Amino acid sequence: MDFNKISEHHILYIITAIAGFVIAVAVRFLCISSGYDAGTANLVFVMILGIEIVLYLVLMKTIINQVDKFMGGDVKSMLFIHIHN
């Protein structure tokens, strides 16, 4: 395995995914400790993960659009080239 292929973007994505998973697990445990059954807690877990994914995508889209306006239109192409190289 070539560890030089792991960029800082991958590390940030992994940290973000782990943080979202930990938050969803904490909410699931809170549901179970509040007296809800396992099915409801699992449904809440999946819903929290879905909400986190949507919020992350909206936030990234907003940030990229704002930086794109500020930098003059080259940010999307630079991000695409940097991420995919």
UniProtKB/TrEMBL annotation:
Transmembrane segment boundaries: 12-35, 41-59
Protein name: Uncharacterized protein
Taxonomic source organism: termite gut metagenome
Keyword Transmembrane helix attached: yes
Transmembrane helix in keyword set: yes
Species lineage: unclassified sequences, metagenomes, organismal metagenomes
UniProtKB keywords: Membrane, Transmembrane, Transmembrane helix
